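Problem 3 from the worked examples.
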Amino acid sequence: MVDAYLTSARPVPSKEVAELPEIEWAPSTVRAELAALEAAGFLTHPHTSAGRIPTDTGYRRYVDALLAAGTTPAESRLEMQLSQLRREVEEAMRETTAALARVTDLVAMATAPAPSAAAATIHRVEVLQLAPNRVVVIAIASSGDVARRVFEFDRPVDRGLVAWASSYLNESISGLGVGARMIATRLTDPELGRSEAEFVGTLGTAFTELERDAGADLYVDGASRLLSEQHLPDLPRADELMTALERRADVLRMLRSSIDESSVFLWIGGENPQPELRSVSVIGANYGLAHRNLGAVGVVGPLRMDYATAIASVRVAARELSRYFETVYDG
């Protein structure tokens, strides 16, 4: 039932369940069983005539069964990406979150044992028009820091200007250190026309938030995936989720609250300790040395996600980071 919904993204009717090859019950028995599961709080339906979808409790039952079965379908895919980590700590954390985000197509997070000394750089900038006079700037640093600012203008902003600003900022400041004086220089380029210079100057305040967070020991990758057409239908409160990811201190505190966990830990929907994350699922695992955990690695995504792949990938990421830090502390 849950597998069918995860695959199709639409409520599953009892007739479809009864037709599954592994189901030997009569349709009337299937309807009765689904009704019982709904009464127990494992399933619900959007409206009377619709099929059923899992509740948070239903997802929890499903995930607990996956953990008990110990399936690891994505292990080899991720291990290929992480087995080569033999560089400095910051680079290892970046490689880990990038590989985890790529394999799961979710937002990946990892906490480092200690703040990194290397300076973060501007990785990418997105300038999007939310309304005729409303523009949002999303700035992502190489460390995974995300700053998002919404700007309101007195009059409609030309769409061409918005597209130009996104391209200009990426070409001009990508790769520059967060807080570098060169950023301010690029934003006040005398060769720009008046309207372009004023617009870019206004948007430039978004980058001060990245500077404020530079050096934090939380790495995030894949944040822009939240804005993709694939995930938006399953994220009714995507804006709240972006806000939650920006509150790095809260995310760090949440991950560190499970530092004593010895295996994969999950928060599904309402189980999440951070209110803004109660419409999504968080899957994490701790990594470290034999005698103590050093940090956590995990993913954030919609309730309707491929839990088997996510759990397996997080397990492998934690294992590879543990192996990496054994070499760091022994070296």
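Problem 4, a separate protein:
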Amino acid sequence: MAQALEGEPDVEMILGLGTNEPRVPLERTEFVRSDQKYSILNRIVRATQVDTIVHTFLETNSVNVPSRVLHEINVIGTLNLLAAAGTSGSSVRQVVVKSSTHVYGAAKTDPAWFDEEMERTGPITTRLERSLIEVEALVRDFAEDNPHLIVSVLRFANVLGTDIITPISHNLRRRLLPTIAGFDPLVQFVEEDDVVRSSSTSPDARSPASSTSPGRQAPLERGGLHLWRVPLFLPPVKARAFSAPLRRLRAIQFPPEMEGLIRFGRGVDTSKLIEAGFDFRYTSAGAVQSFAQANNLRRSTGPDGPAYRYEQDVEQFFRHSPAVVKGIEG
């Protein structure tokens, strides 16, 4: 997201905040290594006079995230961020929140397509879904209390891409995708580049917008057979219990929120985002094809090269030292 914003000439200042250092080269983006404590967020908002906040740190994968940590990151972190954005005298004029279609759940009573105004039809069954629903409730209250702000929620479907790792992409890279015997669900995918682009093209709306590649859903089994060699069929009853040995061996990722998806599937409408002017570069099938091509290339060329290492002192030298002749250091 920061790299994409650096290419926008009308964006004067970009500030990234997180507990992990950047994994990609950044030229104009300032980075602050910090957690989501209110005191820090409030000071940063006041000091920078930032006008737009893109909230991207919601955890949408419960693998290896303890329940308490998940709640701290998603719910408490969002609460602190919104409090900093809405404090008296704040310069913030727009807030964009990256959420997930997990808020709809996946149940046999679901409609073929969810639109943005629909509620989930089944009970909340996982801690991840509960935390995301709590987050969106906080955002709704924040928008009602701050009618002068543009507040947008983007619910992303299953993301595939060359860099992002999700439970589905983790399994596909190992040629093994859990499938529940007797079920052939319809699912949607969104390519990671469209995720980044849609986050900066959020609609001026008071209700969530779904971001998933347009077009009909693809059957999970038929749509991905060319990506793996050994389908893993799980029984319809106690599927997670039967998958436990493979999960302990880290051969697959199968978080609780994935079970309903591969059993019943999920489809969401994207008309609100398209009406706001966003043009998807990838269809759902195109996102799968792009991932397959990148995965095959990775297998042919071997492991990736050394990861980018963020050297904060070096970055600060090039940005602020009077010894650097501007325009030549890069």
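Solution to problem 4. The chain has twelve helices and twelve strands. The two ends are 21 Å apart (CA to CA).
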